[in-house]
């Protein structure tokens, strides 16, 4: 029988991945995309794990999304045949690598974003035998990157269409920073408007998808394009930020938290106050503090190597369990993570490559 994480072979603190939740989330999101006529290109910057990427691809993912060419190199090593760089790529070394990969493998697909004439020209200067296939990004006021107006979008798209070494193939957008469903619906309208003006064969429309995939599924149902969702956080979900924001709070289905951190109580220096041996290097804190799974425990603050909690009845040596908030800054704190079953027996290993 596989060893339990509590059998003495593991140091603490320790983050674990629950196998059942991980597999459930991958299957659930794959089914949602399939049932709504969309393709999934999960954003692997969340986990940067070959083991998880393999599961996502086996579940039917169209390809994998990354944030830059450094991640693209790693993901290519996972065996990815299709990679979306959900960003403007301007790094010469990264573009040289991509051009070499495209030349070496006719079956390799590489998509990147562009939102400026200058960005298109940078791509063209580093293109090789095959052109860089580009999604022209349409943004929104106050958002991240992306052309702010339709006129600007059309100018960039026309320049890409007339520039050797670059091939516009669709539209990209990111809706994750918008405050509500009404704003997302309006933004989807701007993306479909941009798509209607883009005269390309078999167009692609790529959107984020982690917080609003229900709205996206409805709004883009009639779009004549391959709709690519780049959702990433769904794979492990969480007990905080995404638990509150998942579209499955509004539609049928559920995601389950797959990450959990165990840590010892180190000190009880005052009545009702305890110091836990888990800090900012072990668990995320940027979108909410860890969530205690023991009743009566409240996290007050985190330090580099410690977490201060308010609780009664704790003593040094006690083990506490915590859920996490925001998986995208959880995986990167660990290079090796045990995968456990419901009894915390180790049934596998996940390695990250940040």
TrEMBL record:
Name of one Pfam family that matches: D-ser_dehydrat
Protein name as it appears in the record: Alanine racemase
Top enzyme class: isomerase
Alphabetical UniProt keywords: Isomerase, Lyase
Molecular function via GO: alanine racemase activity
UniProt-listed Gene3D superfamilies: Alanine racemase, D-serine dehydratase-like domain
InterPro entries, A to Z: Ala_racemase_N, D-amino_acid_metab_enzyme, D-ser_dehydrat-like_dom, D-ser_dehydrat-like_sf, PLP-binding_barrel
Residue ranges of every copy of the D-serine dehydratase-like domain listed in the record: 258-341
Domain of life according to the entry: Bacteria
Family listed: Belongs to the DSD1 family.
SUPFAM superfamilies: PLP-binding barrel
EC number: 5.1.1.1
Organism: Actinomadura luzonensis
Keyword Lyase found: yes
């Amino acid at each position: 029988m596989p060893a339990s994480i509590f059998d003495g072979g593991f140091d603490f603190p320790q983050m674990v991945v629950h196998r059942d939740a991980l597999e459930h989330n991958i299957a659930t999101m794959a089914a949602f995309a399939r049932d709504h006529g969309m393709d999934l290109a999960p954003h692997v910057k969340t986990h940067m794990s070959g083991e998880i990427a393999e599961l996502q691809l086996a579940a039917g993912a169209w390809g994998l999304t990354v944030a830059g060419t450094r991640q693209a190199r790693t993901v290519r090593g996972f065996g990815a045949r299709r990679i979306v760089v959900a960003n403007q790529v301007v790094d010469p070394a990264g573009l040289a690598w991509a051009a070499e990969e495209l030349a070496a493998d006719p079956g390799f697909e590489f998509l990147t974003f562009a939102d400026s004439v200058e960005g298109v020209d940078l791509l063209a200067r580093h293109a090789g035998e095959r052109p860089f296939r580009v999604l022209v990004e349409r943004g929104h006021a106050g958002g991240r990157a992306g052309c702010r107006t339709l006129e600007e979008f059309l100018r960039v798209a026309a320049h890409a269409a007339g520039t050797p070494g670059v091939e516009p193939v669709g539209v990209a957008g990111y809706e994750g920073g918008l405050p509500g469903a009404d704003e997302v619906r309006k933004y989807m309208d701007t993306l479909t408007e941009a798509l209607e003006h883009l005269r390309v064969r078999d167009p692609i429309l790529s959107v984020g998808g982690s917080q609003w995939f229900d709205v996206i599924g409805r709004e883009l149902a009639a779009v004549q394009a391959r709709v690519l969702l780049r959702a990433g956080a769904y794979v492990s979900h969480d007990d905080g930020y995404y638990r509150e924001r998942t579209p499955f709070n509004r539609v049928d289905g559920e995601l389950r938290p797959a990450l959990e951190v165990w840590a010892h109580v180190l000190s009880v220096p005052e009545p009702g106050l305890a110091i836990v041996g888990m800090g900012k290097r072990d668990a995320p804190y940027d979108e909410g503090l860890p969530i205690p799974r023991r009743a009566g425990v409240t996290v007050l603050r985190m330090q580099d190597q410690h977490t201060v909690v308010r609780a009664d009845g704790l003593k040094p040596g006690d083990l506490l369990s915590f859920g996490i908030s925001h998986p995208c800054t959880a995986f990167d704190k660990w290079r090796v993570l045990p995968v456990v079953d419901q009894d915390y027996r180790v049934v596998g290993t996940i390695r990250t490559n940040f």
